[in-house]
Structure formats: structure tokens, C-alpha cells
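We were asked to recover a plausible sequence for a given structure. The inputs and outputs are reproduced exactly as logged, with field labels preserved.

PROBLEM: sequence recovery
POSITIONS: 100
GIVEN STRUCTURE:
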């Protein structure tokens, strides 16, 4: 082998290995950061969903408490359930809700 070819290979191979190792480390770093950011985003989304569910549960419990305490509204809800397509039953419930 000629001297120029040997010199080129002696210089090129370590540089290529160093470049490959550097790119591999950058890839690992980027993947780690993306994974951590996705986890944080998922945690925030789960907390937001939990807050929405808690607010909905609170609103539902308040509504059920009002319905349970109001005899006219309870009767209107039973009428609406038995006659689901009836406009009169719907109006009865709406009027009961307005007067709460």
C-alpha cells in the first residue's frame, strides 16, 4: 500500500469513528429530551382531565342534590323519563329549573 493511502486511512478512520460516536450520542440526547418532554406533557394532560372530571362530578352532585330536594323537579324528571318525547314534560322540567 502506498504511503498516501495509509496516511489517509490512518487519519480518516478515527475521524469517521469519532463522528459516528458523536452523532450517536446526539441522537440519544435528543431521544431522551423528547421522551421526557412527552412524559411531562402527558402528566399535564392527565392532571387537566382529572380537574375537568372533578368539576363535572361536583356539578353533577350539586344537580342531584337539588333534584333530590325539590319535589316538583323530581316529579318533572320522572314525567320526562316516562314520556321522553313529550314537549309538555320537557317544559315542566324547564319551568321547575327556572324556579330553583
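RECOVERED SEQUENCE:
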Amino acid at each position: 500500500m502506498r504511503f498516501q493511502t495509509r496516511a489517509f486511512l490512518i487519519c480518516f478512520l478515527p475521524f469517521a469513528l469519532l463522528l459516528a460516536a458523536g452523532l450517536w450520542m446526539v441522537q440519544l440526547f435528543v431521544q431522551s429530551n423528547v421522551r421526557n418532554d412527552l412524559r411531562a406533557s402527558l402528566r399535564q394532560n392527565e392532571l387537566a382531565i382529572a380537574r375537568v372530571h372533578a368539576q363535572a362530578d361536583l356539578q353533577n352532585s350539586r344537580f342531584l342534590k337539588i333534584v333530590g330536594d325539590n319535589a316538583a323537579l323530581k316529579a318533572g324528571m320522572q314525567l320526562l323519563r316516562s314520556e321522553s318525547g313529550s314537549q309538555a314534560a320537557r317544559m315542566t322540567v324547564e319551568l321547575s329549573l327556572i324556579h330553583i
